[in-house]
Q: What sequence folds into this?
């Protein structure tokens, strides 16, 4: 089953009252640098500081009353944990979040701040999944996967849908790819609302599972995982992979150095705070200028949740 | 002679096509923290990254044709240098900027990038003034002072004028104070467009000339100068001091630690890049919560030109 145009419209309408319609920024300087017109879709200004609230909100709002009463659950150390905690609070239900015990304190505090119940576990995927399974068995809560879920994908499609509405005639849209929720949503929004637009994906060199998966035709793990773009270290999923395989124009990798260089430009020129995962998209455009020259290109900034001490380290070391 | 309502309107109309009408941001989190409603006027998104372009543009656009032909000149190592260089280019004349030879390379590059002619000098006030005098004698260029000039003050008043137009019924506006150009402009805008609004000024503890000047009734130097808010190290001037003395509600000092704490909140919650001088205003509100509780307070962010390596150091050390 694939998501229809109506599914995407319904998801956007359903979540509209709970999310920001984020602004689209431009910069004459960056246009000159890229040799084309760039439109930055700023999900760093979104609720909880990242696009993830869109999918989480859509998933929670789509639950039956019975299911909603028992709450929602996930394992995550990142933006999805905050998103689900926030979404659950908005609809008046409980969120159970399984987090690795070595999660950054700032992220734990944010999830707690939204009123979620946290269960700590060992920092391994197995421990996370077992911890989650135990919570679900005990509470009857519904698992909300961070990306491999059609309700999540439909929610994330709102980013590109808004961008297409605000900037007609885009030649390209660039989205980052981690688990593929945002990228799948972007691809489906483009398919239904702006079929002539090409969608490119940006992936860190140090988490190159998606380029590899496209080449082999099945879901692969990255050859090695080592990147500052901590939101993009995940493999693709059963639901996101086929959509990406069918619709994406091209996936390009960018190095951590290229990511930090793009971040620096954004901080200095746009005067906004973005996280490393966000900067992959601008890095891609600047790395492949000839492909985007004299065109209108939408660049998605996925979020702005960066630890300021990490930031200091990044700008010093690259 | 004092600036009339008509002077301020004329300055705003004259410069409108050359500047951004900057956005006003809000944050539910920061409202809760402050116990009132805060409206952030974001001059970090202004052309050249700071409000200074408003005054420079108004000064340059107000010159006679004869004077304009000979160019404009100033000494500055900061945002005024960039502003004057940019303004001169916009109207097609030359800018001569005297800069201390130890100026940050990024600032020198920015001034050069706008096509100004730079004369380097020893990093003392005397050398700067002598260097400027020499340039003016040689070229016949008109001196544009960074703040102690009614055309500059009239230009800077646009910040508060726009804020008042966008957010009716403000109880307070907070501006930073260095030389007093922005503060004087803010005070005059409030006097003419929103006389019931109170204006407070934020000054770094390590550049406390303005609080001292108000106490003694004459222009004073700071007891010592040591602050990260590099835009606010200047003394008041002959034109700015009387306006401030007559109209300001109160000047409060804030420490460098309080400035960095406020910066951190802005980066983390508003996801925007501001320079230390900007953060003094939010720091003031959070330091004197009881005075702004349950009120509508406009907080001016003066600019966003911060060296990212300095930034790293700040967030690490405070």
A:
């Amino acid at each position: 089953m694939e998501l229809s145009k109506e599914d995407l419209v319904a998801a956007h309408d359903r979540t509209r009252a709970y999310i920001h319609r984020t602004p689209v920024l431009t910069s004459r300087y960056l246009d000159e640098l890229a040799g084309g017109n760039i439109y930055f879709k700023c999900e760093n200004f979104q609720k909880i500081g990242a696009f993830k609230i869109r999918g989480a909100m859509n998933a929670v709002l789509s639950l039956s009353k019975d299911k909603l009463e028992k709450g929602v659950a996930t394992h995550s150390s990142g933006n999805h944990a905050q998103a689900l905690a926030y979404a659950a609070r908005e609809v008046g239900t409980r969120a159970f979040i399984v987090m690795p015990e070595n999660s950054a304190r700032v992220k734990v505090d944010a999830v707690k701040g939204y009123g979620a119940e946290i269960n700590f576990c060992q920092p391994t995927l197995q421990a996370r999944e077992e911890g989650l399974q135990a919570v679900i068995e005990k509470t009857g809560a519904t698992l909300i996967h961070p990306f491999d879920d059609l309700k999540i994908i439909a929610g994330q499609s709102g980013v590109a849908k808004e961008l297409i509405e605000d900037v007609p005639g885009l030649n390209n849209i660039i989205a980052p790819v981690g688990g593929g929720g945002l990228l799948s949503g972007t691809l489906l929004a483009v398919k239904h609302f702006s079929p002539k637009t090409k969608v490119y994906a940006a992936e860190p060199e140090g988490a190159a599972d998606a380029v590899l998966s496209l080449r082999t035709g099945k879901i692969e793990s990255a050859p090695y995982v080592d990147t500052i773009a901590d939101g993009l270290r995940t493999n693709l999923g059963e639901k996101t992979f086929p959509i990406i395989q069918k619709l994406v124009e091209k996936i390009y990798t960018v190095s951590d150095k290229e990511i930090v260089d793009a971040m620096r430009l954004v901080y200095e020129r746009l005067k906004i705070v973005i996280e490393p995962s966000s900067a992959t998209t601008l890095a891609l455009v600047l790395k492949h200028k000839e492909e985007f020259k004299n065109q209108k290109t939408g660049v998605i900034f996925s979020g702005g949740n960066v630890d300021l001490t990490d930031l200091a380290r990044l700008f010093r070391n690259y």
